[in-house]
Amino acid sequence: MKDLLEELTSVERTVRDGEVPAGPAKVVLLTRTYPAAADDVWDALTDRDRLARWFLPVSGDLEVGGRFQVEGNAGGVVRECEAPRRLVVTWEMGPAGPADTSLVEVRLTEDGASTRLELEHRAQVPPEMWDEFGPGAVGVGWDGALLGLALHLAGQELGMSPEEVAAHPAVREFNTRAARAWGEAQLAAGDDAARVEANVAATTGFYVPPAEG
């Protein structure tokens, strides 16, 4: 298995305010470069068979305007698709609202023989959720997704269930460090240090619960 903590440091994280069609939103942005061609990265992001190998099974219509469902996770609608450069989908954890309140945009840029990936999640987050967890609530999950993509592009398959992955000591350490990394991004965005510490603790507790036994 690749060095997970090294993969963690390969990601640049940004927290800021932004907009969605429904109004003001919170934004988390993850940026990293993969040693793979843009066409290969795009295929891994959009081919349902490959998605199931590094992310989760995805059902539904993956064409523009189509509705999809990620197994055990969010569903949404494909809003824009400019192969192999840009993909925009809604990201709905519950019933869809009257307007887009949560959007995920992925942008790919060729960088020599490598590909720069930017994943931007803009969402209207309930104030009580942001006050408790800050950006780490979604940020750590996207860190895990980008890690899975890195392993897949390197030809590595974990061969474990999602439950086994979450319980693996290396993954628990990865999630702990990821929560801290999002705290650092939150501080860089100008948030209060005491609030950041509380958010990091809450996020860590969610992603890295006490081991049983």
What portion of residues belong to β-strands? 25-35%
- How helix-rich are the residues, as a percent range? 40-55%
Summing up helix and strand content along with how strands pair, one would put the structural category as alpha+beta
Mean pLDDT value: 93
Strand order of the largest sheet: 1-2-8-7-6-5-4-3
> How would the global form be characterised?
globular
Number of helices: 8
Q: Spans of 5+ residues with little confidence (pLDDT < 50)? A: none
Oligomeric state of the chains in view: single chain
- Give Rg in angstroms: 17 Å
Provide the descriptors you would attach to this structure in a database record.
213 residues; alpha+beta; eight-stranded antiparallel beta sheet
Describe the structure.
The chain is of the alpha+beta class and 213 residues long. The chain is built from eight helices and eight strands. Strands 1-2-8-7-6-5-4-3 form an eight-stranded antiparallel beta sheet. The protein is globular, with a radius of gyration of 17 Å.
Short note summarizing the structure:
41% of the residues lie in helices and 29% in strands.
Which helices and strands appear, and what pairs or packs with what?
Elements: H1 4-8, E1 12-20, E2 23-34, H2 38-46, H3 48-54, E3 58-60, E4 67-70, E5 75-82, E6 86-90, E7 102-111, E8 114-123, H4 127-133, H5 136-153, H6 162-167, H7 169-188, H8 193-207
Antiparallel strand pairs: 1-2, 2-8, 3-4, 4-5, 5-6, 6-7, 7-8
Helix pairs in contact: 2-3, 4-8, 5-7, 7-8
